[in-house]
Every structure is written in C-alpha cells, then in structure tokens.
Amino acid sequence: MSQPLRIAVAGLGTVGAGTVQLLAKQHELLLRRCGRALEVVAVSARDRNKDRGIDVAGYAWYDNAVQMAREAEADVVVELIGGEDGPALATCQAAIAAGKHIVTANKALLARHGTALAQAAEQAGVALNFEAAVAGGVPIVKALREALAGNVVDRVYGILNGTCNYILTEMRETGRSFDDVLAEAQALGFAEADPSTDVDGIDAAHKLSLLASLAFGTELAYDAVYVQGIRGVTPIDIEFAGELGYRIKLLGSARLTERGLEQRVHPCMVDTDKPIAHVDGVYNAVIAQGDFVEDTLYEGRGAGGGPTASAVVADLVDIARGQRVPTFSVPATSLNRATLLPMDRHRGAYYIRLNVLDQPGVIADISAAFRDEAVSIESMLQRGRSPTEGVPVVLTTHTTEEAQMRRALDQIAQLSAVVEPPHMIRIEEL
Ligand code: HSE
After folding, report:
1. 344-428 shares the fold of 140-300
2. Is 391 strand, coil or helix?
3. Ligand 1 pocket check: which of 169, 203, 211, 279 to mutate, most ligand atoms within 8 Å of Cβ?
4. What CATH fold (topology level) applies to the domain 344-428?
5. Separation CA 72–CA 59 (nearest Å)
6. How far is the CA of 291 from the centre of ligand 1 (A)?
7. In terms of CB atoms within 10 Å, which end of the chain has fewer, N or C?
C-alpha cells in the first residue's frame, strides 16, 4: 500500500468542514479507489474553538493558512478561504513555492489569477485543481477537461448561480417582486446578507470565465465578461415571458467563433421547450457543445457543504492516483490569447417592453426608430388602453446586433409618449 496522501485544509467554513467530514466518512471507500489513504493532517481557520460539527483535535492546527502552506507536512493544500486576493492568493502561492499541490473552490481567485497560478503550478510540477469552483457538485470541469477532450467545444453556457435561479423561480411561481423574494431568501439563509456578488452576476461571471478557458484553451479574460444581474427583472416581464413561451433565466454563455471570444452573463428569455428552462430552484446546469458529441447537459447542486465537498474530494482523488491534467485543458504556457468580442457586437433577438401613452402615431414612431437602425420586429402586443397613463407594449425582434438595438432604444427613450426607460431582455438562441 502506498503512503497516504497528506492533506492540509485552509478554511473550515461549510465546505471545509464538509470536506473533512466526507474524507472521514468515506475513508475506506477512498482507500480502495485510490490504493492509498486520504488523510487530513493539518487545518487552518480563524477560530479554533468554533463549533463546526467536526473534531479538529487530531490535526495540526494553524491560525495562519500561509504558514500552514509553507510548513505543514502535507502533499496538498485545499484552499477554501475565499476572496480574490489576500490570504487565499498568498496561501496558494506559498503552497506552490513549497512544492505542494493545490485544490481550490475559489472562483474569484482563479478568475483573477488563474493563468498566472496555473503557470506557476506547472513550473513547480504541482497540480492546481478546481472542480469545486464551478457549479459546486456538478462535474463540469472534468467533463470539459477530460471527457470532452476529443471535441472542439465552441460553446458552453448555463445556469451558474443557484441564488439567482432560486429567486427567479420563486418570482415566477409566486408573482412576487425581486426585493420581496430576495428578503425572504436572506431570512431563510438561501441568499447572503450582502447578495451583490450573486444577484449582480459577478459569481456567475467568475465561473463563466473559468469555463471559457477550459473549453477553448484560452487565457482567462474575466474583465472582458459582460455582466448584468437580475435586479431589474420584474414580475410583469416574467408574466409576458410566459405568454410568449419563454422563461427568464440568468445564463452565463461563452462562445468562440472566428469573430472572437464572447462571454456574457445576463437575464435571458429561454424557450420553454429547452431542458434548461426547467432547471429550477437552487440547481445549476451547464451545457457544453462539442463538434462530435453535440449537446451535453450537466445538472446538479451548485453550492452547499456536501456537493462542493464532493467536488473537492474528486480533485484529491486525482492527485492521490497520480492523475495529472493541465489546469485549463492545455498547458498554461500554451493558452491562447483570444480576440475579445465586445457586447456591442453580440448578435441575437430581443424582447422589449415599453410603457407608452396610447396615442395616435406612437407605434409608428417606435417602428421608425427600429427601421432607422435596421432592426426587424417579429411580434408586438399591447395591453390595455390609456391615452394619459402608460400601457405596456411588448415587442420581440429578429436577430440584430446589440449596437443597433441600443441605438434604436436610445431613440425610443426620447419619445414623449414613452413614459419610462425601455426594458430589454435578450432572447437566447439555444
Ligand atoms: N453563491 C453561489 C450560488 C454558490 O448561489 O450559486 C457559490 O458560488
């Protein structure tokens, strides 16, 4: 029997404690699967005496994760501290310098520093694995890096944030507003006290940038992700979406074409015929399109101690078995730098909701703005009649370029009969 794989865990929150619990509970199973034991030897967190449902007495304790990464008698450091810089980055850098492998669930850190960390890890001959960083327990990193290795993957997209998916699902099912549902989700512990990373799309953008790099073999380009969260989604748009045969989902979508790399996170109208339209609640789902395999769909829990620990341990198992694959599918020194496509160049169809005074000529003026920008209208519906108060007019368009759509909407917003700024949601072609 080989020597045990010695593991140091930095950060004992829900995922850290869950990982320690999983490793203890599945000790025999993992021993059989790896041919060696997976042993936690050291842990680090801020408060030694906090009750986490695990007994830390048997492990070397470090108040300082960087010191642990440097000094612990360990083969792997599991970084579960979180945050895009600070102690998480310093811990990973210290682990690499000390010749220790890294497993991390930290998407923010990798989105910012992933290319540099992967290069440093490769140079030091250690692994940098991150299955838990994207969609929690859903094995999408391994799928892209390993199972789909024989394909050119040109598109990867999905529901990458459980908090947003939960809020949008509740809004649809109950007709309540974003603020109402968010407040309830916070009270139930489904949403953070400061929800902005989730509801403003930042968490999904972190994950999308990692998926793009894995799928396309390109350098991380987090700053180039177009990001729009769900704060502006209203019950009336959810209702109209239903009437038009759509559901509103926050999708992250990355595509590499000859035009360049497009990465975007925003609310989308998704055809109810598509399986992803029915992924509800806190669930995540990712679709990867390969040239030989075609569409593949992965779905599961994107957060929580158990699912995320499951992904962390999968990475530890690879290291224990001596399985080494490049962090982002190709060696970090050979990641390509893609041409980055700005959102203005995005091409797609659009849902537009206007609040207008129902007076003669209003629709003609709106149509003229679309005509001037060569935007073709696909359908239009109007509810109610009021020459003095606003009534909703909903339009859908054929495929157009975002820049044209924005210019048309700017023109429409200037019309005196249009009484509030236009609401626009992109219709996603899946
Ligand atoms: N907060 C995330 C979510 C999980 O709601 O999906 C961790 O990225």
Report:
1. no
2. strand
3. 203
4. Alpha-Beta Plaits (3.30.70)
5. 11
6. 30
7. N
Rounded to the nearest angstrom, the distance between the alpha carbon of 397 and the centre of ligand 1 is 33
39-91: pLDDT as tens digits: 999 999 999 989 999 999 999 999 999 999 999 999 999 999 999 999 999 99
Cβ atoms of residues 111 and 205 within 8 Å: yes
Q: Is the pLDDT of residue 1 over 80?
A: no
- Of all residues in the chain, the percent with pLDDT exceeding 70 is 100
* Span from the CA of 379 to the centroid of ligand 1 (angstroms): 36
Burial of 214 by CB count in 10 Å (0-12 exposed, 13-18 middle, 19+ buried)? buried
CATH of 140-300, one of 3.30.720.120, 3.30.360.10, 3.20.20.240, 3.40.50.450: 3.30.360.10
User: Distances from the Cα of 58 to the Cαs of 39, 48, 50, 54, 387, in angstroms?
Assistant: 11, 13, 15, 10, 75
CATH topology classification for 5-133: Rossmann fold (3.40.50)
Minimal-distance CA residue to ligand 1 atom 8: 203
How is the chain split into domains, by residue range? 5-133, 140-300, 344-428
Say how far apart CA 15 and CA 34 lie, in whole Å: 22
Per-residue confidence (pLDDT) for residue 195, from 0 to 100 = 96
Ligand 1-lining residues (CB < 6 angstroms): 161-163, 198, 203, 302-303
> Over the chain, what is the mean pLDDT?
96
Percent of the chain exceeding pLDDT 90 equals 96
Residue 207 annotated among the catalytic residues of the structure: yes
Ligand 1 nearest atom to the CA of residue 166, by list position: 5
d(CA 21, CA 52): 10
Average pLDDT over residues 417-423: 96
Is 343 a residue whose pLDDT tops 90?
A: yes
